[in-house]
Design goal:
The structure holds two protein chains of two kinds.
Chain A (H helix, E strand, L loop, with lengths): L16 E4 L2 E6 L2 E8 L4 H12 L9 E4 L2 E7 L2 E7 H4 L2 H9 L3 E5 L4 E7 L3 H6 L14 E6 L2 E9 L2 E7 L3 H15 L1
Antiparallel strand pairs in A: 1-2, 2-8, 3-6, 3-7, 4-5, 5-6, 8-11, 9-10, 10-11
Chain B lengths: L12 E10 L2 E7 L3 H7 L6 E2 L6 E2 L12 E4 L6 E5 L9 E5 L13 H4 L8 H5 L6 H13 L13 E14 L3 H12 L4 E4 L21 H13 L4 E4 L2 E6 L4 E7 L12 E15 L3 E3 L12 E3 H9 L9 E5 L5 H9 L6 E4 L11 E4 L2 E6 L6 E5 L5 E5 L2 E5 L2 E3 L12 E3 L4 E3 L9 E3 L9 H18 L32 E3 L4 E2 H9 L5 H8 L12 H12 L3 H4 L13 H5 L11 E2 L3 H6 L3 E5 L2 E6 L8 H14 L2 E4 L4 E6 L3 H8 L12 E7 L5 E11 L2 E6 L4 H15 L6 E4 L4 E7 L3 H8 L16 E6 L3 E6 L8 E7 L3 H11 L6 E2 L2 H11 L45 E8 L11 E3 L12 E9 L4 E9 L8 E6 L4 E8 L14
Parallel strand pairs in B: 1-7, 8-9, 8-13, 9-10, 13-26, 15-22, 16-17, 16-22, 17-18, 29-31, 32-42
Antiparallel strand pairs in B: 1-2, 3-4, 5-6, 5-7, 11-12, 12-13, 14-23, 19-20, 20-21, 24-25, 27-28, 30-31, 32-38, 33-36, 33-37, 34-35, 35-36, 38-41, 39-40, 40-41, 43-46, 43-48, 44-45, 44-47, 45-46, 47-48
The chains are: A alpha+beta, B alpha+beta.
């Protein structure tokens, strides 16, 4: 085990949580991320291989999927982001690459992103103030790329009252500020 | 003051008393009042001064079309100028001041302008202030701006927050009058996603301003009942206090919701206003109609109002402008004003109706075929002079006048995509044209020209059915109450002939005479008329004036109104606060901030940070006793060059390139070849624009046959990635290549200096051999550090020293920096910032953005041979243009002062030792300068014509602006280690 101590995107030893009115904003650091992009004409093969390996049916445009420790959302044509628990799958990219071989390009994305899970009844009111995603009609399982606080982000609807937002890690502070300001606004 | 003009009834809550101030005087009103209605109830008629002539003015309307009653609301940072008293919702503690007057509203010094009105006619600025030309900017304009103009800005920062947001719906309904409410009921019951936006704080529109609009129920009751039903529907969003101000592309509408303007101040964390961008599949415009004034002599005195507005004050706000009021109209509708007032016990001496066949009204005299030819009263109306149908003149004492020239459909939002209104001869008004309406927009109710309540209700419901059927949603018109359905009875009447000063545009002081003058001077087109006279400008955008002025122009030109032209509107419908447009993006939040992985550690070291795009980078790390930034920078440079230094270079863009054609792809985007780069090696690469100019450089590391990591400059990370995606998707769609950014995923540090290897050997796990033999210059590889953490190591050097860049997953970046510092203690390791980085790269002659400045080519950079002729690449062909390859082309060289004590100024130009100092004799320019602590001298990089062959030559480095001139010598750009021995050590 190496000796380097990690810090969270917000620069702390422990993930941050803010409770503002009915809204809870939680910094999520326990997920490993890897992008999977099918090589030319390998979309179907990659879907099959991923299904065999992880049980995930790779989702279509605007969707996410979850099976066991794995979850995936659509990022682009024949391109997905796969997530799994960091503790058990820190080397997720290597793990997927070994299954997919030269059928796909796999890139470690774990620390490219910060993730905040936002929960609470006023969820849609909050996200309406942050981004132009149609959050009210996004059912659990919907995922979308949009901008919030001038940042490119992904939203994944985890449940009726829970949305995960993935943003660029270096701007975690700005994204967090935007989430908190919007939460205060609707609290 | 007392509520002397308060009547019975109304939609005000008399149990909630609200105290407020106007021009420092204390007043009181009730919950539900506007500032205008409360002042009116208190007997205040004078509320402002006009723009140009400083004429006393009172309230004209009861809505957002108000041109006169503009006030400054609140104080300090919250002061807001030019707020219409008619829409300013009263709250306890409200404070408002009149504007555009000095020293007081009653005694305004600038009212002298009114005496000079003969000189201050339309176009007078253009004619009067022509000479001398130089006086305009310095003298005339400042004086005129001070004299004319409306409210003043506070100059303080607005302390409140403004939100921005996005909404989506099937049907956006703009305006909650009878048509809008009927449409919302219909669409809401059908299950559609509906947004009903209403600029007023009370829904209902004319339904709450009129008596008898509905047959069997009061308008207010039906509105309340409808509102309750809509509020109970999960699919309907009611948005009172929300002005839809613009119709944009693809069914997108801009709206401002006033969340806290009706409160003394917003609650903690809550916004004052929210700017909404509404994405609608269909939009229904039910914005009603705006009544038009009649132009007659002195028709602008306080107390002279629109008839429908008077009814709104009487019926909704239970207040009358005065105890005695005359009506002047050309239609039946305005007679209702007299009936409503009489029912409340207010005296109505007469109705002056221009129509000889006007109907009688019980309780007052109707002067048929008569006109008002003048008015009296300095600060408020005292009487009107009537010319009867027989030609006699009659004075009528009154303190208020309700006038009506008919109603104009409120067309604003229908015109925002260049929709041209068309003339409807039945109602003598412009209505929305069939063509040019914004995509997905439908108009109903009075806004469409259906001027009866019954037609508005039915029209609204039917329009909702039509709009939803387009979307595949079946709806049936809601059951609606029986309503007033009297046909419009109106005889066009625009202005009283012979009047000298009869106002058309109250806000901009444009009179009938000004329109005549414009016509006389041949400014007859509508657009010219507007610009010449200022008609229709400023906060009200001509809502009450445009059609009247058009009618006068039509009369003068002998054409019909539609032949004369139509007027269209642009967004915003009403003024939008700058704060709302800015939203939360103010101050430090103007743009997002990007922090490097070592930021927290650097803060602990007291680093001074520099904004580089959105990034904050450590510029230098001051130590105790250092009093000048250069002491810190010199120390960082010397310590690095003598031993080892560490710099966070995470900000450089990193793009992961994979695929069977990854190498071929890199060959396409880089000027130099990459196909033969072995796995485990890095190569410097130069990217050209399509026009052959160099635009970015960096390295590409080959981690596998089908896997590269491309690095870019910090500034161009996004641009390069975007361009690479363009090549991938559009230029080379058949290549098997996949791209993704990994800039953020890896914390990357440059470890530079003669002891860098020794330091890294303490960090890198022992199974990885990083000796010079095993890991030579330009090697790269995937390794582990600190006992098993995956990492990437690149042996590349920007400083010119033996150097590496080491990358670990970002979460461990903070830990790695601390580990490097700890391990480096024995080597006296130093963290260095961007300044030292800059000094060292100038010493080494490496280009950055200063040199890749958008005009320079590979040839200029001395990298001409890098542009491969053996393969195609972006910019290859155009880089071979003759003009870009002349023998005297600019060449990147080093410059040093002939006298080592001289400092080389940045940005100066280079001239020969003799000859003039001018552009024609320019020999080149300086791009980067620095003080080199190694050379103990100021040094520079710059471009010199034919410079590669001019080494040793002396030039003058000049800065004529500041009178600087320094003698310099052209030297190699590589001041330090020109043979590259250090970095290969």
């Amino acid at each position: 085990m190496h000796k380097l101590k990690p810090i969270t995107p917000l620069g702390s030893d422990t993930p941050r949580q803010d409770v503002i009115g009915t809204i809870t904003i939680t910094e999520v650091v326990d997920q490993a991320l890897a992008s999977v992009a099918a090589r030319t004409d390998q979309g179907a093969t990659v879907r099959d291989a991923m299904s065999d390996k992880t049980g995930l049916a790779l989702p279509d445009v605007g969707k996410s999927a979850e099976v066991g420790p794995y979850s995936a959302f659509w990022m682009g044509p024949d391109q997905w982001m796969i997530t799994a628990a960091h503790d058990s799958h820190e080397l997720l990219a290597a793990e997927l690459k070994s299954s997919l071989g030269d059928k796909a390009s796999v890139v470690e994305q774990t620390d490219g992103w910060c993730r905040f899970d936002v929960a609470g009844a006023a969820l849609c009111d909050l996200f309406e103030r942050l981004c132009n995603a149609p959050v009210r009609t996004m059912k659990p399982g919907a995922a979308i790329r949009t901008t919030a606080e001038h940042l490119g982000v992904f939203l994944q609807r985890l449940a009726d009252d829970r949305i995960a937002v993935f943003g660029p890690r270096s701007s975690a502070g700005s994204l967090h500020h935007g989430l908190v300001a919007a939460a205060r606004s609707v609290a | 003051m007392t509520n002397g003009n308060r009547l019975n009834g109304g939609l005000i809550d008399r149990s909630t008393n609200l105290n407020f101030k106007f021009d420092g005087k204390n007043f009181s009103g009730f919950q539900g009042d506007t500032l205008a209605s409360a002042l009116m109830a208190n007997g205040v008629r004078l509320m402002g001064r006009s723009f140009k002539y400083h004429r006393p003015r009172g309230v004209l309307t009861a809505g957002s079309e108000e041109p006169n009653a503009l006030v400054e609301l609140r104080s300090g940072g919250r002061q807001e100028p030019n707020t219409r008293a008619t829409v300013a919702e009263l709250y306890d503690g409200l404070s408002a001041n009149s504007q555009n007057r000095w020293p007081s509203l009653e005694r305004d010094f600038m009212a002298i302008n009114d005496r000079f009105s003969n000189f201050l006619t339309a176009g007078f600025y253009y004619k009067t202030f022509m000479w001398p030309k130089a006086f305009w900017e310095k003298l005339y304009e400042p004086v005129i701006r001070k004299a004319a103009g409306l409210g003043s800005l506070t100059g303080e920062d607005d302390p409140d927050a403004y939100d921005k947001g996005f909404l989506h719906c099937d049907l956006l309904i703009v305006g909650a009058g009878p048509a809008g409410l009927a449409a919302a009921l219909t669409a809401g019951r059908a299950g559609a996603q509906v947004i009903l936006a209403e600029e007023d704080f009370h829904l209902g529109g004319r339904l709450i301003a009129e008596t008898g609009a509905l047959a069997d129920v009061s308008g207010a009751d039906w509105v309340a009942q409808t509102q309750a039903e809509l509020a109970g529907m999960g699919n309907v969003r009611l948005m009172p206090r929300t002005t839809v101000f613009g119709a944009y592309d693809h069914g997108i509408y801009g709206a401002v919701e006033r969340n806290a303007d009706h409160l003394a101040m917003p609650a903690e964390g809550k916004p004052r206003q929210t700017l909404w961008r509404i994405y609608s599949k269909r939009a229904l415009i039910t914005t009603g109609a705006i009544e038009r004034p009649i132009a007659f002599e002195n028709n602008d005195r306080p107390g002279i109002m629109l008839a429908g507005a008077v009814r709104a004050y009487v019926n909704r706000w239970a207040t009358t402008p005065a105890q005695s009021l005359v009506v002047f109209a050309n239609n039946d509708d305005a007679h209702q004003t007299a009936r409503d007032l009489i029912a409340q016990g207010v005296k109505v001496p007469a109705i002056v109706d221009t129509r000889p066949d006007a109907p009688d009204v019980e309780g007052t005299e109707v002067l048929k075929g008569a006109e008002i030819i003048n008015t009296s009263g300095r600060l408020g109306l005292t009487s009107v002079q009537v010319r009867t149908d027989k030609g006699f003149t009659r004075d009528l004492h009154c303190e208020a006048l309700a006038m009506s020239g008919g109603w104009n459909p409120n067309l604003g939002l229908t015109c925002h995509q260049r929709g041209r209104p068309v003339w409807n001869a039945d109602i003598h008004a412009f209505v929305p044209g069939e063509e040019g309406l914004p995509v997905g927009q439908i108009v109903a109710g009075a806004a469409k020209g259906d001027l009866t309540t019954d037609a508005a209700l039915q029209g609204g419901a039917n329009a909702a059915v039509t709009a939803l059927s387009d979307l595949g949603i079946t709806a049936t018109p809601a059951d609606l109450p029986a309503a007033q359905d009297a046909p419009v009875s109106l005889s066009p009447f625009w202005h009283v002939k012979g009047a000298k000063r009869a106002w058309l545009d109250y806000q901009n002081d444009v009179t009938v005479k000004d329109v005549k003058l414009a016509h006389q001077e041949n400014f007859t087109s509508v657009e010219h008329l507007k610009r010449y006279t200022t008609l229709g400008m400023a906060t009200d955008q001509g809502k009450t004036s445009n059609v009247g002025a058009l009618a006068v122009m039509a009369e003068l030109t002998g054409k019909s109104i539609p032949e004369t032209g139509s007027t269209i509107f642009r967004p915003p419908y009403t003024p939008v606060a700058m704060g709302a447009l800015a939203g939360r993006a103010v101050g430090k939040e103007f743009h997002p901030t990007r922090l490097t992985p070592s930021h927290k550690w650097a803060e602990e070291q007291g680093a001074v940070f520099l904004e580089v795009g959105n990034w904050l980078r450590a510029q230098w790390f001051p130590r105790k006793g250092e009093t000048h930034w250069r002491q810190s920078v010199n120390r960082e440079v010397l310590q690095t060059r003598n031993s080892v230094g560490v710099c966070d270079v995470t900000t450089l863009g990193k793009i992961d390139v994979q695929g069977a054609d990854a190498a071929a792809f890199l060959n396409m985007i880089y000027a130099n070849g990459f196909a033969k780069l072995p796995v485990g090696k890095v190569r410097y690469g130069l990217m050209l624009r399509e026009d052959g100019v160099a635009y970015d450089d960096g390295t590409a590391a080959r981690l596998a046959e089908d896997h590269f990591v491309v690095t870019t400059t910090t500034a161009n990370a996004v641009l390069v990635y975007r361009n690479m995606e363009f090549v991938r998707q559009c230029l080379c769609p058949n290549m098997d290549v996949q791209l993704i950014s990994t800039t953020e995923a890896w914390a990357q540090y440059a470890v530079a200096g003669p002891n860098s290897r020794k330091l890294l050997q303490k960090i890198v796990d022992p199974e990885f051999d990083i000796s010079n033999e095993a890991f030579p210059f330009m090697a790269c590889g995937e390794i582990t550090v600190c006992g098993g953490l995956r990492a990437r190591l690149f042996r590349i050097s920007f400083s010119g020293e033996l150097a590496y860049e080491i990358a670990v997953p970002t979460r461990y970046g903070d830990g790695l920096m601390r580990a490097l510092m700890e391990a480096g203690e024995e080597f006296d390791v130093v963290p260095y910032g961007t300044e030292a980085l800059g000094v060292m790269r100038i010493e080494k002659g490496h280009a950055t953005g200063n040199e890749l400045n958008g005009t320079t080519t590979a040839l200029n950079l001395g990298l001409g041979r890098m542009v491969s002729t053996k393969k195609d690449c972006i910019g290859n062909v155009l880089s071979r243009r003759e003009g870009m390859n002349t023998p005297d082309a600019l060449a990147l060289v080093g410059l040093k002062p002939v006298d080592a004590k001289d400092t080389l100024p940045a940005g100066g130009h280079l001239m020969n030792l003799t000859g003039p100092v001018d552009a024609a004799h320019d020999q080149g320019y300086v791009t980067s300068t620095a003080y080199s602590p190694i050379l103990n001298s100021s040094i520079a990089l710059g471009y010199v014509k034919g410079g590669f062959d001019r080494k040793g030559e002396q030039l003058r480095l000049v800065n004529p602006l500041e009178g600087q001139e320094v003698l310099v010598e052209i030297v190699s750009a590589h001041f330090v280690d020109p043979e590259g021995e250090k970095l290969r050590a």
